[in-house]
Amino acid sequence: MNLANRITVARIFLVPVIMFFLLVNFKLPPIRIEQFSITYNQIIAVLIFIIAASTDSLDGYIARKHKLITNLGKLLDPLADKLLVSAVLVSLVDMGKMDAWIAIVIISREFAVTGLRSICAAEGIVLAASKLGKWKTAAQITAIIALLVNNFPFAFLNIPFDVIASWIAAIITIWSGIDYFVKNWHVIQFDN
């Protein structure tokens, strides 16, 4: 269990902590500024989410720089990413902050690409993250943060940035999923 893998495992352990702060009502009055309000729970959850999301780049950087890439890390890193994003998306739907169809599209794409990666791995092919995949991750994290902070500071300008970011995340997620399958279609074999 090297440093990179420990960081990845820490990200996995942060998932239930984030969900706890999002879904448990502490019955504290929210912070209010004019018509904008946000709960203390959301502030704590978004801070933990930002820390967890930022460890994704950190563990990969450490693993590559110090040649600490392991099979365990190859398994845990994408699992941690999917757990983090999926758990927060489900929480956002439960909180009424995200349309369920967007969460379903994003989570379905993650399962589909994970399945494709498994097929490729069985064939000895490594399916590296694409540029679109990195854009997808950035778009998802941006949308999640915007939703977690109740569209701050755009709420003051009456700009629905959180909704726009959610749609952009869904579109890029679909686009990147299609891209993975088109580029690797030759790996999938259908029996007649």
UniProtKB/TrEMBL annotation:
One of its GO terms (molecular function) is CDP-diacylglycerol-glycerol-3-phosphate 3-phosphatidyltransferase activity. It comes from the Bacteria. It is an enzyme of class 2 (transferase). The keyword Membrane applies. It is a multi-pass membrane protein. The keyword Protein biosynthesis does not apply. It catalyses: a CDP-1,2-diacyl-sn-glycerol + sn-glycerol 3-phosphate = a 1,2-diacyl-sn-glycero-3-phospho-(1'-sn-glycero-3'-phosphate) + CMP + H(+). GO terms for cellular component: plasma membrane. Pathway: Lipid metabolism; Phospholipid metabolism; phosphatidylglycerol biosynthesis; phosphatidylglycerol from CDP-diacylglycerol: step 1/2. GO terms for biological process: phosphatidylglycerol biosynthetic process. It holds the Pfam family CDP-OH_P_transf. The chain crosses the membrane at residues 6-26, 38-63, 138-157, 163-182. Keywords: Cell membrane, Lipid biosynthesis, Lipid metabolism, Membrane, Phospholipid biosynthesis, Phospholipid metabolism, Transferase, Transmembrane, Transmembrane helix. It is found in: Cell membrane. This protein catalyzes the committed step to the synthesis of the acidic phospholipids. Belongs to the CDP-alcohol phosphatidyltransferase class-I family. This is CDP-diacylglycerol--glycerol-3-phosphate 3-phosphatidyltransferase. The gene is pgsA.
